[in-house]
Design brief:
about 120 residues; mainly beta; seven-stranded mixed sheet; four-stranded antiparallel sheet; 11 strands; about 0% helix; about 50% strand
Length: about 120
C-alpha cells in the first residue's frame, strides 16, 4: 500500500519553530518531487513549498520564503519542512504530496497525499 504519513505538527507560540516530517511507505520517494501544502479553515489549499527529487531545487510561496526550509533524506525515504518564526496566519493542516514528475516546474501530478498534520501558532 502506497502511503505518505506526516508528523511533527503541534501547538507553538508565535515566533516558535516546528519541523514536519513526511515519511513514505510502499514506494520510494527518490523519483518524486515533494510538495507541502496547507489549508486553513474557510480558506483554499495553498502550496507552501516544493523540493525536487534530488533535493537540488526548492521553491517556496512568498508567504513563507525565508522562514520555511524543505529538505529530504532519500536514504530514510523522508522529506522535512523546517518552519521558523511561525505566526498565527501559518495555522493550518499541513499536507505533503508526491509529484510523479521529478522537478518543481510544471507540469504537476500530485499522485499521493498524506493525511495531514495540524500546526497551530497561538499564544
Amino acid at each position: 500500500q502506497l502511503q505518505l504519513v506526516e508528523s511533527g505538527g503541534g501547538l507553538v507560540q508565535p515566533g516558535g519553530s516546528l519541523r514536519l516530517s513526511c515519511a513514505a511507505s510502499g514506494f520510494t520517494l527518490d523519483v518524486y518531487a515533494i510538495g507541502w501544502f496547507r489549508q486553513a479553515p474557510g480558506k483554499e489549499r495553498e502550496k507552501v513549498s516544493c523540493i525536487s527529487s534530488s533535493g537540488g531545487d526548492t521553491d517556496y510561496a512568498n508567504s513563507v520564503k525565508g522562514r520555511f526550509t524543505s529538505s529530504r533524506d532519500n536514504a530514510k525515504n523522508t522529506v522535512y519542512l523546517q518552519m521558523n518564526s511561525l505566526q498565527p496566519e501559518d495555522t493550518a493542516i499541513y499536507y505533503c504530496a508526491a509529484d510523479r514528475f521529478y522537478s518543481c516546474s510544471p507540469p504537476y501530478d500530485y499522485a499521493h497525499w498524506g493525511q495531514g498534520t495540524q500546526v497551530t501558532a497561538s499564544s
